[in-house]
Specification:
Blueprint: H1 2-12, H2 21-32, H3 37-45, H4 76-106, H5 109-145, H6 148-158, H7 163-190, H8 197-233, H9 259-269, H10 275-283, H11 287-322, H12 326-351
Helix pairs in contact: 1-3, 5-11, 6-8, 6-11, 6-12, 7-9, 7-11, 8-12, 10-11
């Protein structure tokens, strides 16, 4: 039985010399005189070969699957080195996500609410200042241009001048008007319990009427001087007799602009209607909005008066080139209107009615 088992195993294992072991056993038996025991013991003592060295490849058939080289992957440390960048990226991403989540969870909701409330408050504050400033600018322009005494007082001062000079006259008058309004507003804030608005309105209107009479008289005087100088240039001077030698006529005096114009604006600003500038600034919700309204109101007054006088001066300059002696005529007309306006204001105060 043992011989049969060893024979069957030996028959399946190829030997290096080629051929099967059974054939060799038969040859050995024939040549050596029988005895199979030495070969069987040698086969039993031979170690089993692994699957790699089982049979040499004959070059025709496909190699067995187990014959693939196992060392193609490389050593383990090279594999770990190739995977290290990917692992580091993944770890960095997880770390960033963890830190972001921690920060978001650590910030409480009231902090977000406070930041949003601060942003909204800043936007409302800016829009409030801008709206108050534009409202003050428009109110200053309308207040100045809607007053007939303002227009009548400035017309004689700006006729016959260039556009730039007329604009400067109006701006100077507007600065005086602003100064008068500021003075009246401060007096109202300091002495509001002691001031009698009706008495101030009455006397303020009378003073304005007197200033209009003065402005009208000065305008007529200047127009008369210009007319006399133009007649003298033509050789029709009535004051010169035929026996007296002709003298070079003096050039007409140019209208002076200075403190008188500024003072006229101050007088026109000392009116109870200056409360139109003060009261809205006090009624606004914040001091910054009130300051914006007050400052832009003053700027609107200066801008509107400068624009008005520049327009009057440019129109008179344009007409002077086409119509002879138009400057004198316009000055006469504006001065007469100012005188009539002043008389009407004074008469209205005495008889208890108001023109505006």
């Amino acid at each position: 039985m043992e011989r049969l088992i060893s024979k069957s195993v030996a028959a399946r294992i190829p030997l290096p010399g080629g051929g099967s072991p059974s054939r060799r056993l038969a040859v050995a038996g024939l040549g050596g005189g029988g005895g199979v025991e030495p070969w069987a013991g040698r086969l039993r003592a031979q170690p089993r070969l692994g699957p790699i060295a089982a049979r040499p490849h004959d070059g025709v058939s496909a190699p067995p699957r187990e014959a693939a080289p196992a060392a193609a992957v490389g050593p383990p440390w090279k594999l770990l080195w190739s995977l290290l960048p990917k692992a580091s990226r993944a770890a960095l991403f997880l770390l960033v996500a963890l830190v972001t989540g921690t920060l978001q969870s650590s910030i409480p909701y009231p902090a977000h609410a406070s930041v949003q409330s601060i942003t909204k408050t800043g936007g409302l504050f800016t829009s409030e200042i801008l709206s108050s400033g534009w409202a003050g600018f428009i109110a200053g322009c309308l207040h100045t241009l809607s007053g007939p005494d303002h227009l009548v007082a400035l017309a004689p001062l700006s006729i016959g001048r260039s556009r730039l000079e007329s604009g400067l006259v109006g701006a100077l008058w507007g600065c005086g008007h602003d100064a008068g309004q500021v003075i009246f507003g401060l007096l109202f804030l300091l002495l509001k319990d002691r001031l009698h608005i009706e008495i101030l309105r009455t006397w303020g209107t009378r003073v304005v009427g007197l200033t209009l009479l003065i402005i009208g008289g000065m305008g007529i005087r200047e127009a008369t001087e210009v007319q006399e100088s133009s007649l003298a240039l033509e050789g029709v001077d009535c004051n010169i007799t035929s026996s007296e030698p002709l003298q070079t006529p003096a050039a007409p005096r140019k209208k002076k602009v200075g403190f008188a114009t500024f003072a006229t604006g101050v007088v026109h600003g000392l009116q109870p209607d200056a409360l139109l500038m003060v009261l809205p600034s006090l009624a606004l919700p914040s001091r910054f909005a009130g300051a914006a309204f007050l400052g832009m109101f003053l700027m609107g007054t200066v801008f509107s008066m400068g624009s008005y006088t520049a327009f009057v001066g440019s129109c008179s300059e344009a007409l002077k080139e086409k119509v002879p002696r138009i400057t004198e005529k316009l000055t006469w007309a504006a001065s007469l209107v100012a005188i009539c306006m002043g008389i009407a204001l004074l008469v209205g105060q005495f008889f208890g009615f108001s023109l505006y």
